[in-house]
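Reply to dn_fold:

You asked what the input looked like. This is it:
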Amino acid sequence: MSDIITIRQRSPWLWSDLGYHVLGQGMEHNRRLKTLHSFTSGVIHERVEQLSLSGGGTNGGASGPGTRKRRAFLDMLLQAEDDGGNKLTHQDVQEEVDTFMFEGHDTTAAAMNWALHLLGAHPEVQRKVQQEIQEVLGESGRAITMDDLKELRYLDCVIKEALRLFPSVHFFARRLCDDIVISE
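and this is what came back:
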């Protein structure tokens, strides 16, 4: 999907919807988009079914005072209500799920690629990261846990620096609805 969008962005003759669909790229775009939407729709329907079988609870069995369990974002969307008490429609949930599944994937992949590139370009930093991981994990050969990640402070700084140098989202487009007065 990303390759089709990139081709369209770089090809002025494909900017018009008419040209895009006549030249065939649009049909391939729509076919892939349908595949993506059917995937996320399946995820939503599967979760709705699981929630209905479990009685609608999403707290993972946590109960009692002071017990707090993180809920999945999809669960929160499925239970969200507006000020009038109306739940989100399936299409509303679908749009949100599409956004966090696919946009999050692209930005995460870009961030990982740049971080790895920078580690490869700076072997002294790579050695420090390897040493820190070795200190935290030792010779255990086990998988890294969330608690281990909290201890990997240097790696955290390396990732943040990669994001600073090569942000996944370079800018945010905004449009003002009202005039803004900046103090003189």
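Residues 82 and 88 are 8 Å apart (CA to CA).
Hope that clears it up.
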